[in-house]
Specification:
heterodimer, A: 390 residues, alpha/beta, Rossmann fold, 2 domains, four-stranded parallel sheet, 15 helices, 8 strands, disordered N terminus, B: 460 residues, 22 helices, 52% helix, 8% strand
């Protein structure tokens, strides 16, 4: 898609405001749109079959009503919101969905979706929980099953060459995202956290090739910037699961703070690791999705050889990359944000705080209920953090 | 003990008619913690474990298995959980996380303060300090995230064992079951490798390949549960929950446990023969319990029993019919073990339904990803008038599917549900007074749907 509005960032804002517009256009042109949840569905396989992946998000502005019939209130409000939109027909343009064992509720949502929403195609990938070699082999087998169902659905054959081409296309996007994040390293950064999130949400809403074109324009535009982003005292890293609305980051950046780095699944987490090009492309995919995605839903082994290395080694193995981010992006504070009832991230909190304290990084934990109304009281706490840093 | 010397007949003093055999069984299971402490005193390895791990491997390696999630139920039912929950919260773990796990985290934090000693006044004598932690990916993420988090307090290795849980449609794909079996064989063998290196000793493969004793235990427990289909139901959920741990966790000596479960079977069978119910009141309503029990408020079920509610079935922990195929031709003991403990979805459907209905169910699953009649089967088999759904603030895995289940049993069999929110461990989240009011009102609903089922030609 050519940049119709003239500049990349304007186009980004357009897509952010009306996410589904482009895929609806593509559907009208005869394309098949596949919705997916979280970062574990293997998009390369969809793209290789000329399917258009579309990331499913919730809507913080929409009161959850219809999902109440299927999901109790004491489960993840983000996933409840996604289901709510599905039941209300806001994902009616999807021809199929791919979900994975991302967390307890995410796994069950896949099955509830089949009952409550129903799409012509649906597949669930039971991603293993450990990153041992045999778990990767297991995931490869599960991807072969996924491939089989996609081939039946599309009536097309997924060739290794086609899959490699798709992997390269997605890897290009990942490289460009990393380039974009590099522009956040200067002080002040060339692009704010709010703008970055808008870019990330936009590229999750359009075909990968169009996303690559958009990223190219955005990067070039941002590089030409002067002092558009003001210098702030706090250079923050935000950690946690999905952030699909700019409200939280805007609130943080309304203070004396800029979000210069993140480890969230709409942000860097899904883009900082490439798929290695292997003889059998499924090997590379299984490796990347199980080993390289640093989501707490995967248990990382540190003692399979029977040697116990202790808590400090465990913290380093699990969170060391965050220490690297802190150094490279000159981060001086961290916000651990988790929507209520997100257990896989919730369990990490005391340990991640231990790690941040070890590397002397001031931090706070914010728990919220995926609503904009709940953000106001959190502002005071972020203010407190900026004052500690400031 | 035989059926002849079991004291029969209702005891009018209590609404619930408890099984005498349950007390002996319960006492044996509670000794698991004593066994752990003795093992520690003797210098033997102790593993804190999660459900669905291959316990016989630990037994074969001389490791004493202790189950913190079961310990959570003991702390909750004895009123001793609060200090551990508060400690976990003070440590920074969010209060909505699994009650069993927060109980264990608080316990471990206290234990760390005491240099590995059992916290003073710990219910049941407390859990001994572990040598290693063995978690699983079964049913919920807490089963591995909890043990990972314990690393903060326990300087011991953590090993997580995979427990695949594919969707029903994906499970019916050609070759899916065989691939899962081969994966688990490799997975368990890697666990053996790990243990051999960690413990510096070799595995006794004769033990793991011997599946007969476990099968006997599983069979007698399943047969006991099947007896609960009759009217009046001879065994209330209270007795089921009190006695399930032995069969569920497979901790302890399987032969000794089989003897105790056989005694229970005989007592329940005797009740069936003499039409004695699991409650000392007329059985007015037969219910299934969906979710995990509010362990801290089990006396609530006495009040319901007093109103003629008999809990005849529970979806959680309900035993499945043991695998009944000849495995003697399989030379690999680990593969024998895996096949004895993991059935294919297709074989379960073929086993539990008549051929015509089984074909419909498989077709439904392949086409739409689910089958409501498959999900609702036990409600029909146990002739339930209602379902008690227990959404829990601290358990996502069992709470998330509850409302779907509610719809499915209503759609297929016109069985209504009562929803009462609460928690497994946290007493403060359950309101028994309000619950009883709702239960009283629910009786009219159950009466109404009894008539609806009659009109629709359903058999109960």
């Amino acid at each position: 898609m050519v940049n119709a509005a003239g500049t990349g960032l304007i186009r980004v804002k357009e897509i952010y405001r009306n996410r589904e517009q482009r895929v609806k256009e593509l559907k009208a042109e005869g394309k098949t749109i596949i919705g997916y949840l979280c970062i574990y569905p293997v998009l390369e396989m969809l793209t290789a079959l000329d399917l258009v992946p579309y990331r499913m998000f919730g809507d913080m502005d929409e009161t959850i009503t219809s999902a109440d019939d299927y999901l109790p209130t004491m489960v993840c409000p983000f996933l409840r919101s996604v289901l709510d939109l599905g039941i209300k027909g806001k994902y009616d343009f999807l021809d199929g969905v791919v979900m994975a064992h991302i967390c307890d509720v995410g796994a069950r949502l896949s099955h509830i979706w089949d009952v409550a929403v129903k799409t012509p195609y649906s597949h669930f990938i039971d991603v293993p929980h450990t990153d041992r070699k045999i778990s990767r082999e297991r995931l490869k087998e599960l991807l072969q099953d996924f491939q089989e169902t996609l081939e039946i659905f599309t009536g097309k054959k997924l060739t290794p060459a086609g899959l490699k081409e798709s992997i390269e296309l997605h890897n290009r996007q990942r490289a460009m995202v990393r380039e974009l994040y590099d522009l956040k390293k200067p002080d002040p950064p060339l692009i704010s956290g709010t703008e970055t999130l808008q870019v990330m949400i936009a590229i999750n809403s359009i075909p990968v090739e169009e996303g690559n074109n958009l990223l190219k324009e955005v990067i070039s535009e941002v590089k030409e910037r002067g002092d558009d982003v003001p210098k702030k005292s706090a250079r923050l890293l935000v950690w946690g699961p999905v952030i699909d609305d700019i409200a939280l980051i805007e609130m943080i950046e309304s203070l004396d703070a800029t979000v210069v780095m993140d480890d969230t699944c709409v942000g860097s987490r899904n883009f900082f690791a490439d798929v290695p090009l292997t003889d059998d492309p499924l090997d590379g995919l299984a490796y990347r999705y199980l080993e390289e995605l640093k989501c707490p839903r995967t248990f990382r082994e540190s003692n399979t050889d029977g040697v116990h290395r202790g808590y400090q080694a465990d913290l380093e193995a699990r969170f060391g990359y965050l220490g690297d981010y802190a150094k490279e992006w000159n981060v001086n504070g961290a916000i651990l944000q988790v929507p209520r009832y997100c257990d896989s991230h919730g369990y990490e909190v005391p340990q991640l705080k231990d790690y941040f304290e070890q590397i002397s990084l001031p931090n706070i934990y914010l728990e919220h209920d995926y609503s904009k109304a709940a953000l106001a009281p959190l502002k005071t706490r972020v203010q407190g953090l900026t004052e500690i840093i400031g | 003990m035989t059926a002849a010397n079991i004291v029969k007949g209702p005891s009018p003093n209590r609404p619930l008619n408890r099984l005498k055999s349950m007390y002996e069984l319960r006492a044996y299971v509670d000794k698991m913690y004593e066994g752990g402490r003795e093992a520690e005193d003797e210098g033997k390895p102790v593993a804190w474990c999660m459900l669905s791990i291959p316990t016989p491997i630990l037994t074969a390696m001389g490791v004493e298995a202790v189950f913190p999630e079961n310990y959570g139920t003991i702390c909750a039912s004895s009123g001793g959980a609060a200090p551990f929950l508060e400690r976990a919260e003070a440590e920074g773990f969010p209060s909505h996380m699994c009650g069993y796990c927060r109980n264990g985290l608080g316990y471990a934090a206290e234990m760390a303060d005491l240099n590995g000693q059992v916290p003073h006044g710990a219910p049941g004598g407390g859990m001994s300090r572990p040598t290693l932690l063995v978690g699983s990916g079964a049913v919920c993420d807490a089963r591995y995230k909890f043990f990972q988090a314990l690393g903060r307090y326990l300087d011991v290795p953590v090993y997580i064992i995979e427990s695949p849980a594919a969707g029903q449609r994906e499970s019916l794909m050609e070759g899916a079951y065989e691939r899962t079996v081969q994966f688990l064989v490799k997975e368990y063998k890697e666990f053996v490798d790990f243990l051999e290196k960690f413990l510096g000793k070799k595995m006794d493969w004769n033990i793991i390949g011997e599946t007969q004793t476990e099968k006997e235990l599983d069979t007698v427990w399943w047969e006991t549960s099947e007896l609960r289909r009759v009217r009046p139901c001879p065994m209330n959920s209270r007795d089921f929950w009190s006695s399930m741990s032995g069969a569920l966790y497979k901790a302890g000596d399987a032969k000794e446990m089989t003897v105790l479960y056989t005694k229970m079977y005989e007592e329940v069978k005797d009740r069936v023969d003499n039409k004695i119910a699991g409650i000392n009141r007329e059985e007015k309503y037969r219910l299934t319990f969906q979710g995990l029990p509010p362990w801290h408020s089990l006396s609530f079920f006495d009040k319901l029993a007093d109103r003629g509610w008999n809990f005849v079935h529970e979806y959680s922990y309900h035993p499945h019919k043991p695998v009944d195929i000849d495995l003697s031709h399989i030379s690999d003991p680990m593969e024998r073990y895996v096949r004895a403990n993991h059935q294919s979805l297709e074989s379960v459907i073929d086993r539990d339904f008549e051929p015509e209905e089984a074909a419909i169910i498989k077709d439904e699953i392949r086409k739409q990803g689910y089958s409501s009649r498959f999900a609702a089967k036990d409600v029909r088999d146990f002739k339930c008038d209602g379902a008690f759904l227990h959404p829990m603030l601290t358990c996502r895995a069992f709470t998330a599917p509850l409302y779907l289940f509610q719809k499915q049993i209503m759609d297929v069999y016109k069985v209504p549900s009562l929803v009462l929110e609460g928690d497994i461990v946290d007493l403060t989240l359950f309101d028994p007074v309000e619950g009883l009011k709702k239960a009283e009102a629910f009786e009219e609903t159950m009466d109404y749907y009894k008539e609806v089922r009659k009109k629709e030609g359903l058999e109960w």
